[in-house]
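Recall that a protein's primary structure is simply its ordered list of amino acids. Everything else, from secondary elements to tertiary packing, is in principle encoded there. The following example makes that idea concrete.
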Amino acid sequence: MTTREPSEVDALADAYTLARAELDPLFGTAIGLSGYDHLMSAADPDFHDADDALARDTLAKLDAVTPRDETDRVTVAAMRERLGLLHELHEAGEQFRALNNIASPLQGFRDVFDVMPNRTEEHWSNIASRLAGVPQAVDGYLACLREGVRRGYVPPALQVREGIVQADQLADPENSFFTTFHRTAEHGGALALELDRAGVAAAQAYGTLAAFLRDLEPQAPAADASGRDRYRLWSRLFLGAEVDLDETYEWGLDELARVTAEQDAVVETIAGTGATVADAVAVLDADEARKLRGTDALREWMQSTADEAVAELNGVHFDIPEPVRTIECMIAPTQNGGIYYTGPSDDFTRPGRMWWSVPPGVTEFNTWREKTTVYHEGVPGHHLQIGQAVHNRDQLNLWRRLVCWVSGHGEGWALYAERLMQEFGYMDDPGDLLGLLDGQRMRATRVVLDIGVHLGKPAPQRWGGGTWDAEKAWELLRANVNMDEKFLRFELNRYLGWPGQAPSYKIGQRLWQELRAEAEAKAGASFSLRDFHSRALNLGSLPLSVLRDAVLAD
């Protein structure tokens, strides 16, 4: 691929990216830019106003430039869509009620430390400096929440209670992440004392946050639903496209029924006619050949499965650049049960990583449940998708490579990638296929649950009739998702507090599959799946509406 001379649009996109990293150092660390790790972001109302002003200024500058080529036209379309939505969210005051159990500032101030380099004394000095900034960041966040109270934007009671629990854990001086995570590192003297002092101060700040949330809880509304107007805004953010929410809800019901029937057929091949999913799970869990014991065995299995996929898919179904052929599989320092991916740094000195957060006391794992997850997070899923965009630096500016992440594009691709591995023959084993369908069924359930609860849709009689609420949603989850009840409760609380995010996976998969069908119909006999994937992935993450126009453009 030939090197592309950067354009005026590229310069504007890069300038926005660097300006935003200066404003929000946590953002700089998250996207892998060096030079920001020693700084902590502000989180007060003035910070959010400055962030909005930067977005508006960049939008105005975009209006004054002329795209030079198709790459520029895609960049301009994507930036207008993304930055325009950020402005809409700011105008709606969403920064003043940003509290949920998984993706709010409460978690963000702590989670950034997971992706910071920690191999050298300079790295630990950066960590100490940032850790010392946590109290000021918490103060800024509290200022936003107080402004939300003044405006009547109080988070739902469930999310406030979840926040109290998490803040209390981080406030515990003996067991807080902030006071313990650095103790196993090999550093001493003044730096060790600095880390200790900063960790204690950070924990105390979270104690202040927990106390505020306790005082807030009596004012918090009991209802979890966001309402249609807020939901439409968040749905657009997570998809990069506007969908008919009522039609999508009906499609979700149909898709749930279809995947359930597909899963039932696989259950019969595993456990016999009339067997239930629980029967099939019991058969698979009793199979010693599918069992892993200990986190070392889990990590080694993840790594070997991911490496095998890279080796066998490269040059056959995909063209995988050399730096992207390396992925690190890690056991996460947290213990909340999540599995996630973090992308490589811009220069690939920090490789793409698949993380497994193992809950306390869990020592046995079953490969049939998780093989599809390795493909989802690794190759051909997130690692290929994100790594290929980062590698395509000759064609994509900083913003396109590192910033423009759209959940419906990324998570939709990862679900599409799981189905691709079935299409390529990697999920022929009935156990592995059951694991894939288990995940697909969960994602279809989330479409029904999320839209149903947040829009106040009528619930089918099978799920209690009337209007969807948290209680009916819980019964829907328990009937359709094969997970530990504690984890399932965490998931439900996530959906209730993060409107529009969970359905973006399955809706995104739907839009990817529709795009492939459109591209194939347009190309006819000349259609190449390998070329379709290369063209789409080389564009980087985009709003799905922009992706469609770019892929189908002549």
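The radius of gyration is 23 Å. The beta strands are 291-293, 327-331, 339-342, 352-356, 364-366.
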